[in-house]
Amino acid sequence: MKILTLGNSHAIDAMTMLYEVWQKQNPGAALTLGILDYSGCPIYKHNRFTREQRPAYQYYKLNNAIYNETGKWQVNGTQKASDRIPEEWKTKERIEPTDPGWVLFDGWTIDEALKDEPWDFVVVQQMNNYAFFPEHYENGELEWHIDHILKTVSSTPKLAFHNTWPNPMDE
């Protein structure tokens, strides 16, 4: 299973725990996770960065990991984008998030992440400060975002929406 999420720190929280649930439901099955993170980023800003092809994101990746019988994550295969790992990171066993196997890449675009793997799922998310307001979903930005994902990704993924709790700025 290969899952990419385009979001912010809430995506990091959700995805770094997802593989523990995955292991219980799918023991021995490989899982690849990608998190494209720009903290505090609403959908309209993701779209602006996409239109500009701005390398504004941190890309966390857990590639082909299997939870083995000893209760440890075993990472199989190699990172497809290993040429983008800075030398000082190659000596570290892990990068934030602090779970084994995660690698952090800096300076990615949305399109690069969408093309990095044949994703089974792509998860989109709205910034929690905007989650409460319908106008942030009715302004065409979400539709443009989804349209761009489907035109760019190198597979035919299912789309999911990570619903964060509402946190209105003015209330």
Task: Give a quick summary of the entry.
The chain has helices spanning 9-25, 43-52, 87-90, 110-116, 141-152; strands at residues 2-7, 31-37, 57-67, 73-75, 102-108, 121-125, 158-162. The protein has 171 residues and is an alpha/beta fold.
Give an overview of the whole structure.
The protein is of the alpha/beta class and 171 residues long. Helix content is 29%, strand content 26%. The protein is built from five helices and seven strands, in the order βαβαββαβαβαβ. Strands 1, 2, 3, 4, 5, 6 and 7 form a seven-stranded mixed sheet that branches. β3 and β4 (73-75) form a beta hairpin. α2 crosses α5 (141-152). The protein is globular, with a radius of gyration of 16 Å. 30% of the residues are buried. Residues 76-98 have low confidence and may be disordered.
Q: What descriptive keywords fit this protein?
A:
single chain; 171 residues; alpha/beta; seven-stranded mixed sheet; 7 strands; globular
Rg calculated over all Cα atoms: 16 Å
Straight-line N-to-C gap: 40 Å
Helix run count: 5
What sequence of helices (H) and strands (E) makes up the elements? EHEHEEHEHEHE
Task: State the assembly state of the protein chains.
Answer: single chain
Major β-sheet annotation: 7 strands, mixed
Please report the total strand number as a whole number. Answer: 7
3D shape: globular
* Proportion of helical residues: 25-40%
Low-confidence stretches: 76-98
Structural class: alpha/beta
Overall pLDDT, averaged? 75
Percentage beta strand: 25-35%
How do the strands and helices of this protein lay out in sequence?
Layout: E1 2-7, H1 9-25, E2 31-37, H2 43-52, E3 57-67, E4 73-75, H3 87-90, E5 102-108, H4 110-116, E6 121-125, H5 141-152, E7 158-162
Parallel strand pairs: 1-2, 1-6, 6-7
Antiparallel strand pairs: 2-3, 3-4, 3-5
